[in-house]
Protein backbone atom coordinates (compact mmCIF):
# COMPACT_ATOMS: atom_id res chain seq x y z
CA UNK A 1 0.00 0.00 0.00
CA UNK A 2 1.01 3.61 -0.47
CA UNK A 3 1.79 6.06 2.35
CA UNK A 4 -1.35 6.74 4.38
CA UNK A 5 -3.09 9.99 3.62
CA UNK A 6 -3.52 12.26 6.59
CA UNK A 7 -5.79 14.69 4.84
CA UNK A 8 -8.14 14.56 1.90
CA UNK A 9 -8.61 17.22 -0.72
CA UNK A 10 -12.24 17.55 0.28
CA UNK A 11 -12.78 21.26 0.06
CA UNK A 12 -14.65 22.35 -3.00
CA UNK A 13 -11.87 24.67 -4.05
CA UNK A 14 -9.16 22.05 -3.76
CA UNK A 15 -11.23 19.57 -5.73
CA UNK A 16 -12.15 22.13 -8.33
CA UNK A 17 -8.50 23.05 -8.68
CA UNK A 18 -7.53 19.45 -9.34
CA UNK A 19 -10.23 19.13 -11.92
CA UNK A 20 -9.35 22.36 -13.58
CA UNK A 21 -5.84 20.97 -13.93
CA UNK A 22 -7.11 17.75 -15.47
CA UNK A 23 -9.51 19.55 -17.73
CA UNK A 24 -6.68 21.73 -18.86
CA UNK A 25 -4.29 18.86 -19.52
CA UNK A 26 -6.90 16.83 -21.32
CA UNK A 27 -7.56 19.86 -23.46
CA UNK A 28 -3.85 20.30 -24.07
CA UNK A 29 -3.47 16.71 -25.17
CA UNK A 30 -6.22 17.20 -27.69
CA UNK A 31 -4.64 20.39 -28.97
CA UNK A 32 -1.31 18.59 -29.38
CA UNK A 33 -3.09 15.80 -31.18
CA UNK A 34 -4.80 18.11 -33.63
CA UNK A 35 -1.71 20.25 -34.07
CA UNK A 36 0.30 17.16 -34.97
CA UNK A 37 -2.43 16.02 -37.30
CA UNK A 38 -2.44 19.43 -38.98
CA UNK A 39 1.25 19.10 -39.84
CA UNK A 40 0.81 15.49 -40.85
CA UNK A 41 2.82 14.00 -37.98
CA UNK A 42 1.99 10.65 -36.47
CA UNK A 43 -0.22 10.87 -33.38
CA UNK A 44 -2.48 7.92 -33.05
CA UNK A 45 -5.84 8.17 -31.38
CA UNK A 46 -4.60 5.39 -29.14
CA UNK A 47 -1.66 7.40 -27.79
CA UNK A 48 -3.96 10.35 -27.22
CA UNK A 49 -6.33 8.21 -25.20
CA UNK A 50 -3.42 6.81 -23.21
CA UNK A 51 -2.15 10.29 -22.30
CA UNK A 52 -5.60 11.52 -21.28
CA UNK A 53 -6.36 8.40 -19.32
CA UNK A 54 -3.13 8.63 -17.34
CA UNK A 55 -3.81 12.27 -16.56
CA UNK A 56 -7.38 11.65 -15.47
CA UNK A 57 -6.37 8.63 -13.44
CA UNK A 58 -3.71 10.57 -11.50
CA UNK A 59 -6.26 13.15 -10.48
CA UNK A 60 -8.99 10.67 -9.74
CA UNK A 61 -6.90 8.52 -7.42
CA UNK A 62 -5.86 11.55 -5.41
CA UNK A 63 -9.48 12.61 -5.06
CA UNK A 64 -10.74 9.21 -3.95
CA UNK A 65 -14.38 8.86 -3.16
CA UNK A 66 -17.11 8.93 -5.67
CA UNK A 67 -14.93 9.84 -8.57
CA UNK A 68 -12.78 6.80 -8.02
CA UNK A 69 -15.93 4.73 -8.01
CA UNK A 70 -16.80 6.14 -11.42
CA UNK A 71 -13.34 5.13 -12.55
CA UNK A 72 -13.91 1.62 -11.23
CA UNK A 73 -17.16 1.39 -13.04
CA UNK A 74 -15.62 2.52 -16.26
CA UNK A 75 -12.89 -0.06 -15.76
CA UNK A 76 -15.52 -2.75 -15.63
CA UNK A 77 -17.15 -1.48 -18.77
CA UNK A 78 -14.03 -2.38 -20.65
CA UNK A 79 -16.03 -3.25 -23.70
CA UNK A 80 -17.55 0.22 -23.75
CA UNK A 81 -14.34 2.21 -23.72
CA UNK A 82 -11.17 2.46 -25.73
CA UNK A 83 -8.70 0.01 -24.29
CA UNK A 84 -6.29 2.67 -23.02
CA UNK A 85 -8.89 4.16 -20.70
CA UNK A 86 -9.84 0.80 -19.39
CA UNK A 87 -6.23 -0.10 -18.60
CA UNK A 88 -5.62 3.14 -16.71
CA UNK A 89 -8.92 3.00 -14.87
CA UNK A 90 -8.33 -0.62 -13.94
CA UNK A 91 -5.49 0.58 -11.70
CA UNK A 92 -8.05 2.44 -9.63
CA UNK A 93 -9.32 -0.85 -8.28
CA UNK A 94 -6.12 -1.69 -6.46
CA UNK A 95 -4.06 1.36 -5.58
CA UNK A 96 -5.53 3.95 -3.29
CA UNK A 97 -3.57 5.38 -0.35
CA UNK A 98 -5.17 4.40 3.00
CA UNK A 99 -6.43 6.67 5.78
CA UNK A 100 -4.16 7.08 8.80
CA UNK A 101 -5.01 5.70 12.26
CA UNK A 102 -6.01 9.08 13.74
CA UNK A 103 -8.51 9.73 10.95
CA UNK A 104 -10.02 6.29 11.47
CA UNK A 105 -10.33 6.92 15.21
CA UNK A 106 -11.96 10.27 14.50
CA UNK A 107 -14.52 8.60 12.22
CA UNK A 108 -15.46 6.27 15.11
CA UNK A 109 -15.67 9.12 17.62
CA UNK A 110 -17.93 11.03 15.26
CA UNK A 111 -20.16 8.00 14.76
CA UNK A 112 -20.29 6.33 18.20
CA UNK A 113 -18.66 8.80 20.59
CA UNK A 114 -16.06 6.08 21.24
CA UNK A 115 -12.80 4.98 19.70
CA UNK A 116 -12.68 1.62 17.88
CA UNK A 117 -10.42 0.34 20.70
CA UNK A 118 -13.19 1.01 23.20
CA UNK A 119 -15.88 -0.45 20.95
CA UNK A 120 -14.16 -3.72 20.01
CA UNK A 121 -11.98 -6.15 21.99
CA UNK A 122 -9.33 -5.74 19.34
CA UNK A 123 -9.00 -3.42 16.37
CA UNK A 124 -6.22 -3.27 13.80
CA UNK A 125 -5.32 0.38 13.15
CA UNK A 126 -3.99 -0.42 9.71
CA UNK A 127 -6.53 -1.28 7.07
CA UNK A 128 -6.33 -4.79 5.64
CA UNK A 129 -8.00 -3.72 2.42
CA UNK A 130 -8.35 -0.37 0.74
CA UNK A 131 -11.42 0.14 -1.37
CA UNK A 132 -13.07 2.84 -3.40
CA UNK A 133 -15.03 4.86 -0.87
CA UNK A 134 -13.89 3.08 2.26
CA UNK A 135 -11.31 0.82 3.78
CA UNK A 136 -11.70 -2.39 5.69
CA UNK A 137 -10.21 -3.10 9.12
CA UNK A 138 -9.95 -6.33 11.04
CA UNK A 139 -11.47 -6.44 14.53
CA UNK A 140 -12.54 -8.93 17.20
CA UNK A 141 -15.48 -8.86 19.55
CA UNK A 142 -16.69 -11.66 21.86
CA UNK A 143 -14.46 -14.15 20.05
CA UNK A 144 -15.81 -13.23 16.62
CA UNK A 145 -13.61 -12.05 13.77
CA UNK A 146 -15.05 -8.92 12.21
CA UNK A 147 -14.64 -6.82 9.10
CA UNK A 148 -15.22 -3.11 9.69
CA UNK A 149 -15.66 -0.94 6.64
CA UNK A 150 -14.92 2.71 7.33
CA UNK A 151 -15.99 5.27 4.78
CA UNK A 152 -13.57 8.01 3.80
CA UNK A 153 -14.71 11.16 5.59
CA UNK A 154 -16.39 13.70 3.37
CA UNK A 155 -17.21 11.27 0.59
CA UNK A 156 -20.96 11.38 1.00
CA UNK A 157 -21.06 15.17 1.22
CA UNK A 158 -18.86 15.81 -1.75
CA UNK A 159 -20.22 13.21 -4.13
CA UNK A 160 -22.68 15.54 -5.78
CA UNK A 161 -20.16 18.28 -6.42
CA UNK A 162 -17.68 15.66 -7.65
CA UNK A 163 -20.17 14.52 -10.22
CA UNK A 164 -20.86 18.10 -11.20
CA UNK A 165 -17.14 18.64 -11.71
CA UNK A 166 -16.32 15.42 -13.49
CA UNK A 167 -19.36 15.52 -15.75
CA UNK A 168 -18.27 18.25 -18.18
CA UNK A 169 -14.83 16.65 -18.56
CA UNK A 170 -16.28 13.22 -19.18
CA UNK A 171 -18.82 14.63 -21.62
CA UNK A 172 -16.09 16.47 -23.49
CA UNK A 173 -13.65 13.58 -23.58
CA UNK A 174 -16.35 11.22 -24.78
CA UNK A 175 -17.98 13.78 -27.03
CA UNK A 176 -21.47 13.52 -25.55
CA UNK A 177 -24.31 15.99 -25.10
CA UNK A 178 -25.59 16.70 -21.58
CA UNK A 179 -29.34 16.75 -22.24
CA UNK A 180 -29.22 13.50 -24.17
CA UNK A 181 -27.27 11.58 -21.55
CA UNK A 182 -29.15 12.97 -18.54
CA UNK A 183 -31.24 9.86 -17.71
CA UNK A 184 -28.15 7.69 -17.89
CA UNK A 185 -26.09 9.98 -15.69
CA UNK A 186 -28.95 10.21 -13.20
CA UNK A 187 -29.12 6.45 -13.02
CA UNK A 188 -25.38 6.27 -12.25
CA UNK A 189 -25.55 9.17 -9.78
CA UNK A 190 -28.38 7.47 -7.89
CA UNK A 191 -26.36 4.28 -7.51
CA UNK A 192 -23.26 6.24 -6.42
CA UNK A 193 -25.21 8.15 -3.79
CA UNK A 194 -26.80 4.94 -2.50
CA UNK A 195 -23.36 3.45 -2.17
CA UNK A 196 -22.38 6.01 0.46
CA UNK A 197 -25.22 4.84 2.70
CA UNK A 198 -23.89 1.86 4.63
CA UNK A 199 -27.22 1.52 6.48
CA UNK A 200 -28.83 0.80 3.13
CA UNK A 201 -26.03 -1.62 2.26
CA UNK A 202 -26.59 -3.42 5.56
CA UNK A 203 -30.32 -3.75 4.94
CA UNK A 204 -29.94 -4.95 1.37
CA UNK A 205 -27.14 -7.35 2.31
CA UNK A 206 -29.30 -8.89 5.04
CA UNK A 207 -32.36 -9.12 2.81
CA UNK A 208 -30.66 -10.64 -0.21
CA UNK A 209 -28.68 -13.11 1.93
CA UNK A 210 -31.88 -14.23 3.65
CA UNK A 211 -33.67 -14.78 0.35
CA UNK A 212 -30.71 -16.71 -1.10
CA UNK A 213 -30.46 -19.14 1.82
CA UNK A 214 -31.59 -22.14 -0.23
CA UNK A 215 -28.86 -21.72 -2.83
CA UNK A 216 -25.87 -24.02 -2.58
CA UNK A 217 -22.25 -23.17 -1.81
CA UNK A 218 -22.78 -19.50 -1.06
CA UNK A 219 -21.62 -17.68 2.05
CA UNK A 220 -22.77 -14.31 3.32
CA UNK A 221 -21.53 -12.28 6.27
CA UNK A 222 -23.76 -11.55 9.23
CA UNK A 223 -24.05 -7.81 9.83
CA UNK A 224 -23.93 -6.08 13.20
CA UNK A 225 -26.31 -3.09 13.22
CA UNK A 226 -25.19 -2.09 16.73
CA UNK A 227 -21.68 -1.42 15.37
CA UNK A 228 -22.84 0.10 12.11
CA UNK A 229 -23.91 3.54 10.95
CA UNK A 230 -24.38 5.20 7.59
CA UNK A 231 -20.56 5.55 7.44
CA UNK A 232 -19.29 2.47 9.29
CA UNK A 233 -20.32 -1.08 8.50
CA UNK A 234 -19.48 -4.04 10.73
CA UNK A 235 -19.91 -7.68 9.71
CA UNK A 236 -18.30 -11.09 10.12
CA UNK A 237 -14.90 -11.51 8.57
CA UNK A 238 -15.44 -13.97 5.73
CA UNK A 239 -12.63 -16.43 5.00
CA UNK A 240 -11.49 -17.07 1.45
CA UNK A 241 -9.35 -15.72 -1.33
CA UNK A 242 -9.91 -13.27 -4.12
CA UNK A 243 -10.04 -14.80 -7.59
CA UNK A 244 -6.36 -14.23 -8.52
CA UNK A 245 -4.95 -15.67 -5.26
CA UNK A 246 -7.46 -18.49 -5.46
CA UNK A 247 -6.39 -19.43 -8.98
CA UNK A 248 -2.73 -19.31 -7.91
CA UNK A 249 -3.45 -22.31 -5.64
CA UNK A 250 -4.36 -24.40 -8.71
CA UNK A 251 -7.87 -25.40 -7.67
CA UNK A 252 -9.29 -28.44 -9.46
CA UNK A 253 -11.65 -28.08 -12.41
CA UNK A 254 -14.39 -29.59 -10.26
CA UNK A 255 -13.99 -26.94 -7.57
CA UNK A 256 -13.86 -24.14 -10.15
CA UNK A 257 -17.03 -25.44 -11.76
CA UNK A 258 -18.76 -25.65 -8.41
CA UNK A 259 -17.86 -22.09 -7.44
CA UNK A 260 -18.76 -20.85 -10.91
CA UNK A 261 -22.10 -22.60 -10.65
CA UNK A 262 -22.76 -20.98 -7.28
CA UNK A 263 -21.99 -17.60 -8.84
CA UNK A 264 -24.22 -18.23 -11.84
CA UNK A 265 -27.13 -19.52 -9.72
CA UNK A 266 -26.78 -16.54 -7.40
CA UNK A 267 -27.21 -14.10 -10.29
CA UNK A 268 -29.97 -16.03 -12.04
CA UNK A 269 -31.92 -16.34 -8.80
CA UNK A 270 -31.61 -12.65 -8.02
CA UNK A 271 -32.63 -11.65 -11.51
CA UNK A 272 -35.47 -14.11 -12.05
CA UNK A 273 -36.88 -14.38 -8.54
CA UNK A 274 -35.90 -11.24 -6.67
CA UNK A 275 -35.77 -8.78 -9.59
CA UNK A 276 -32.95 -7.22 -7.66
CA UNK A 277 -29.24 -7.62 -8.38
CA UNK A 278 -25.91 -7.29 -6.62
CA UNK A 279 -24.71 -5.12 -9.49
CA UNK A 280 -20.98 -5.00 -8.81
CA UNK A 281 -19.56 -8.39 -9.80
CA UNK A 282 -15.90 -7.42 -9.77
CA UNK A 283 -13.26 -9.77 -8.36
CA UNK A 284 -12.83 -7.78 -5.12
CA UNK A 285 -16.36 -8.62 -4.06
CA UNK A 286 -16.04 -12.39 -3.92
CA UNK A 287 -14.04 -14.67 -1.66
CA UNK A 288 -13.44 -18.23 -2.85
CA UNK A 289 -12.61 -21.31 -0.83
CA UNK A 290 -11.37 -24.66 -2.00
CA UNK A 291 -10.84 -25.94 1.56
CA UNK A 292 -14.54 -25.79 2.33
CA UNK A 293 -15.46 -27.98 -0.62
CA UNK A 294 -15.77 -25.08 -3.04
CA UNK A 295 -17.74 -22.14 -1.71
CA UNK A 296 -18.21 -18.54 -2.71
CA UNK A 297 -18.37 -15.68 -0.19
CA UNK A 298 -20.33 -12.69 -1.45
CA UNK A 299 -19.39 -9.21 -0.24
CA UNK A 300 -20.40 -5.64 -0.87
CA UNK A 301 -24.09 -4.89 -1.35
CA UNK A 302 -23.32 -1.23 -1.90
CA UNK A 303 -24.47 -1.31 -5.52
CA UNK A 304 -27.81 -3.03 -5.91
CA UNK A 305 -30.05 -2.64 -8.92
CA UNK A 306 -33.79 -3.04 -8.59
CA UNK A 307 -35.12 -4.24 -11.92
CA UNK A 308 -38.61 -2.93 -12.77
CA UNK A 309 -40.98 -5.66 -14.00
CA UNK A 310 -41.31 -4.29 -17.52
CA UNK A 311 -37.54 -4.02 -17.86
CA UNK A 312 -37.15 -7.57 -16.58
CA UNK A 313 -39.63 -8.86 -19.15
CA UNK A 314 -38.00 -6.90 -21.96
CA UNK A 315 -34.53 -8.18 -21.06
CA UNK A 316 -35.79 -11.78 -21.02
CA UNK A 317 -37.61 -11.36 -24.33
CA UNK A 318 -34.59 -9.78 -25.98
CA UNK A 319 -32.38 -12.69 -24.98
CA UNK A 320 -34.89 -15.38 -26.00
CA UNK A 321 -33.61 -17.60 -28.84
CA UNK A 322 -36.49 -16.76 -31.19
CA UNK A 323 -35.90 -13.02 -30.91
CA UNK A 324 -32.70 -12.57 -32.84
CA UNK A 325 -33.95 -14.67 -35.75
CA UNK A 326 -37.32 -12.91 -36.00
CA UNK A 327 -37.02 -9.41 -37.53
CA UNK A 328 -40.48 -8.19 -36.56
CA UNK A 329 -40.28 -9.42 -33.03
CA UNK A 330 -36.83 -7.86 -32.59
CA UNK A 331 -38.01 -4.55 -34.05
CA UNK A 332 -41.04 -4.44 -31.75
CA UNK A 333 -38.93 -5.14 -28.66
CA UNK A 334 -36.30 -2.59 -29.64
CA UNK A 335 -38.99 0.04 -30.14
CA UNK A 336 -40.41 -0.78 -26.73
CA UNK A 337 -36.93 -0.45 -25.22
CA UNK A 338 -36.32 2.96 -26.77
CA UNK A 339 -33.60 1.79 -29.16
CA UNK A 340 -35.66 2.20 -32.32
CA UNK A 341 -37.85 5.22 -33.02
CA UNK A 342 -40.72 5.71 -35.43
CA UNK A 343 -38.90 8.73 -36.87
CA UNK A 344 -35.75 6.78 -37.76
CA UNK A 345 -34.72 6.79 -41.41
CA UNK A 346 -34.50 3.28 -42.95
CA UNK A 347 -30.69 3.31 -42.96
CA UNK A 348 -30.58 4.21 -39.29
CA UNK A 349 -33.12 1.56 -38.46
CA UNK A 350 -31.14 -1.05 -40.36
CA UNK A 351 -27.98 0.00 -38.52
CA UNK A 352 -29.55 -0.50 -35.09
CA UNK A 353 -31.22 -3.75 -36.10
CA UNK A 354 -27.96 -5.17 -37.39
CA UNK A 355 -25.99 -4.01 -34.34
CA UNK A 356 -28.51 -5.34 -31.85
CA UNK A 357 -28.94 -8.68 -33.60
CA UNK A 358 -25.21 -9.33 -33.49
CA UNK A 359 -24.99 -8.18 -29.85
CA UNK A 360 -27.95 -10.23 -28.68
CA UNK A 361 -26.77 -13.33 -30.44
CA UNK A 362 -23.45 -13.08 -28.61
CA UNK A 363 -24.60 -11.88 -25.18
CA UNK A 364 -27.48 -14.35 -25.09
CA UNK A 365 -25.39 -17.35 -26.09
CA UNK A 366 -24.81 -18.75 -22.58
CA UNK A 367 -28.55 -18.56 -21.85
CA UNK A 368 -29.50 -20.52 -24.94
CA UNK A 369 -27.49 -23.62 -24.07
CA UNK A 370 -27.95 -26.21 -21.35
CA UNK A 371 -24.30 -25.91 -20.40
CA UNK A 372 -21.71 -23.30 -21.22
CA UNK A 373 -17.95 -23.56 -20.93
CA UNK A 374 -16.57 -20.20 -19.86
CA UNK A 375 -13.18 -21.93 -19.78
CA UNK A 376 -12.92 -21.16 -23.47
CA UNK A 377 -11.52 -17.61 -23.48
CA UNK A 378 -12.77 -17.12 -27.05
CA UNK A 379 -16.22 -16.15 -25.81
CA UNK A 380 -15.13 -13.24 -23.64
CA UNK A 381 -12.63 -12.19 -26.31
CA UNK A 382 -15.50 -12.08 -28.80
CA UNK A 383 -17.55 -9.94 -26.39
CA UNK A 384 -14.72 -7.43 -25.96
CA UNK A 385 -14.08 -7.46 -29.70
CA UNK A 386 -17.74 -6.72 -30.31
CA UNK A 387 -17.50 -3.78 -27.91
CA UNK A 388 -14.42 -2.48 -29.73
CA UNK A 389 -16.10 -2.98 -33.12
CA UNK A 390 -19.17 -1.05 -32.01
CA UNK A 391 -16.98 1.73 -30.61
CA UNK A 392 -15.08 1.90 -33.88
CA UNK A 393 -18.08 1.63 -36.22
CA UNK A 394 -18.08 4.88 -38.22
CA UNK A 395 -21.89 4.93 -38.52
CA UNK A 396 -22.44 4.32 -34.83
CA UNK A 397 -19.79 6.87 -33.91
CA UNK A 398 -21.85 9.48 -35.70
CA UNK A 399 -24.71 8.72 -33.30
CA UNK A 400 -23.84 11.09 -30.51
CA UNK A 401 -26.93 10.22 -28.56
CA UNK A 402 -27.15 7.00 -26.59
CA UNK A 403 -30.36 4.99 -26.87
CA UNK A 404 -32.20 2.42 -24.84
CA UNK A 405 -33.43 2.21 -21.29
CA UNK A 406 -31.14 3.59 -18.58
CA UNK A 407 -31.98 0.46 -16.57
CA UNK A 408 -29.85 -1.51 -18.99
CA UNK A 409 -26.64 0.19 -17.78
CA UNK A 410 -26.37 -1.86 -14.60
CA UNK A 411 -27.90 -4.96 -16.14
CA UNK A 412 -25.25 -4.96 -18.86
CA UNK A 413 -22.53 -4.18 -16.41
CA UNK A 414 -23.64 -7.03 -14.17
CA UNK A 415 -23.74 -9.62 -16.92
CA UNK A 416 -20.50 -8.52 -18.59
CA UNK A 417 -18.85 -8.59 -15.14
CA UNK A 418 -20.34 -12.00 -14.37
CA UNK A 419 -19.19 -13.46 -17.70
CA UNK A 420 -15.70 -12.00 -17.19
CA UNK A 421 -15.46 -13.57 -13.71
CA UNK A 422 -16.62 -16.96 -14.97
CA UNK A 423 -14.14 -16.78 -17.84
CA UNK A 424 -11.25 -16.03 -15.49
CA UNK A 425 -12.42 -18.80 -13.22
CA UNK A 426 -12.49 -21.10 -16.25
CA UNK A 427 -15.76 -22.63 -15.10
CA UNK A 428 -18.10 -24.85 -17.05
CA UNK A 429 -21.65 -24.07 -15.97
CA UNK A 430 -25.13 -25.48 -16.27
CA UNK A 431 -26.66 -22.33 -17.64
CA UNK A 432 -30.05 -23.62 -18.78
CA UNK A 433 -33.28 -23.39 -16.80
CA UNK A 434 -32.41 -23.63 -13.13
N1 LIG B 1 -16.74 -9.33 5.48
C1 LIG B 1 -15.52 -9.32 4.93
N2 LIG B 1 -14.66 -10.33 5.13
C2 LIG B 1 -13.43 -10.32 4.57
N3 LIG B 1 -12.97 -9.34 3.79
C3 LIG B 1 -13.79 -8.31 3.53
C4 LIG B 1 -15.10 -8.23 4.08
N4 LIG B 1 -15.68 -7.09 3.67
C5 LIG B 1 -14.78 -6.49 2.87
N5 LIG B 1 -13.64 -7.20 2.79
C6 LIG B 1 -12.44 -6.85 2.01
O1 LIG B 1 -12.42 -5.46 1.77
C7 LIG B 1 -12.52 -5.17 0.38
C8 LIG B 1 -13.42 -3.96 0.15
O2 LIG B 1 -14.70 -4.16 0.69
P1 LIG B 1 -16.02 -3.76 -0.12
O3 LIG B 1 -17.19 -4.00 0.74
O4 LIG B 1 -16.00 -4.44 -1.44
O5 LIG B 1 -15.78 -2.21 -0.30
P2 LIG B 1 -16.27 -1.21 -1.44
O6 LIG B 1 -17.73 -1.07 -1.25
O7 LIG B 1 -15.56 0.06 -1.16
O8 LIG B 1 -15.90 -1.84 -2.75
C9 LIG B 1 -13.04 -6.44 -0.24
O9 LIG B 1 -12.59 -6.58 -1.58
C10 LIG B 1 -12.49 -7.52 0.66
O10 LIG B 1 -11.16 -7.84 0.31
MG1 LIG C 1 -16.25 -3.79 -3.35
From TrEMBL:
Residues of the signal peptide: none
Keyword Protease: no
Entry keywords, A to Z: Kinase, Transferase, Ubiquinone
Matching InterPro entries: ABC1_dom, Atypical_kinase_ADCK, Kinase-like_dom_sf
GO molecular function: kinase activity
Record Pfam families: ABC1
Residue ranges of domain ABC1 atypical kinase-like in the record: 93-331
Name assigned to this protein: Unusual protein kinase regulating ubiquinone biosynthesis (AarF/ABC1/UbiB family)
